[in-house]
Design a protein that fits this description.
The chain is an alpha+beta fold and 89 residues long. The chain is built from two helices and four strands. The protein has one domain. Helix content is 22%, strand content 44%.
Length: 89
């Protein structure tokens, strides 16, 4: 199974993407219809770097530090929306 990545950036009040802060998600679709996912957060004080976020998430996936979620693939909408709404605690 291939690990995929999604990157979420912060926006200012005008809707412009700002260079600092954001989230990176790594996820895999599992054979049983579930999804395994890990995430990393970049501080709003640091410049966002996709590579660093990807490296952190990939390391968490490989170390088994991920969550498994039930995922209904018939639901419309991008996977990013699902990951943002998922219960991470």
């Amino acid at each position: 199974m291939t690990t995929r990545f999604a990157h979420i950036r912060y926006e200012n009040h005008n809707g412009d993407i700002i260079p600092r802060g954001g989230w990176t998600y790594a996820y895999k679709f599992l054979p049983d219809g579930k999804i395994a996912a890990a995430r990393s957060q970049c501080s709003s004080l640091d410049n966002y770097c996709r590579r660093i976020g990807r490296d952190i998430c990939q390391g968490r996936m490989m170390a088994g530090k991920y969550k498994v979620f039930d995922y209904d693939q018939s639901v419309d909408g991008p996977i990013v929306d699902f990951l943002l709404d998922a219960e991470w605690k």
